[in-house]
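FORM 7B: Structural annotation worksheet

SECTION A. Query
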Amino acid sequence: MRAAVRQAAGLCVMLLLAAPSAESQESRPRAREAGIRIGLMQPGPLNAITDVAGVEVGHSTIVLGDSVRTGVTAVLPHPGNLYLDKVRGAVVVRNGFGKLVGLSQVNELGQIETPILLTGTLSVFRVADALVDTLLVAEGMSDVRSINPVVGETNDGYLSDIRARPVQPEHVRAALRAAAPGPVEEGAVGAGTGTRALGWKGGIGTSSRQLPESAGGYTVGALVQTNYGGILTIAGVPVGRFVQADRPAPASRDDRDGGSVMIVIATDAPLAHRELERLAERAFAGIARTGSWMSHGSGDYAIAFSTHRGPLDAPGGELLSRLFVATAEAVEEAVVNSLFLATTTVGYRGHRAEGLPIAEVLEVMERHAP
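SECTION B. Predicted structure
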């Protein structure tokens, strides 16, 4: 896929980035590095969606002046041409206040045939168009007459001038080109550049869980774009009751009630569409554990896919239950990672989203741990 994107781009792309501030270079730990243990299962070596072999992630971050804080995040189920080598997939909608492009065909055919892209709400259509343009001119695609792009979004309009629709084709191609295996950059990057979650600066987060060899040794990985409301809860501790953002003005209701979340689940377990749909359902158990009540204005979507290429046997109930637990735990930790890695951001009209004060959070958790 990266080779196809380079061929299709045919130009040198320059991202429109502001000079990094001292704060953006601040070293912040992931939740597990800070001593927080979520759930009972063990993560993979990277504790990221890229622990599922073949999965790649790339970001394109757009920071312009004092008004644009947005970007694109790309998740590639494998590095080849997905249209020519599709993966099994499913999409679950928990609350449908959103604009996920490609949903109906994925669930009708049980397949995903393009990279999965995430961005801001009013840019989702431009991102989908750029993805189609890029794939149409890729090698082996000259006779293709239909492509189903999969593009999700959350609304970053508090910190970014969302009406400007700043995402351009070059940003889409940059995210695709940047997609790689290995560690995943988290926090205020890519599609998480301008998001807020649970009263704090949100962003991109990832985590994984690995089943023991006796249960097949399968891996489940999650990547989330966090931008939703609720009372922040970490490992069962209602942190949001005790830690409040130091804002120059009272928090708006949107901090508690609004926003959305996009969840991408990857696994190498041999699952068909129906099992992947059930796996995606469990992603929302992880979201609920972080304090969300999935409000009226929240668009809550989970996309699940399997990288398994061989024949399928009906998985037993015990295996499915373990995969369900892995999904809920990975999503919950991915959300916390998105908050731990996101730094304070000032954007559109001077709006400000505070980075989570990690030291204070850890103190609260020590005092109130169940």
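SECTION C. Observations
The chain has one domain: 2-19+36-364. The first helix runs from residue 2 to 9.

SECTION D. Sign-off
Analyst initials: ____
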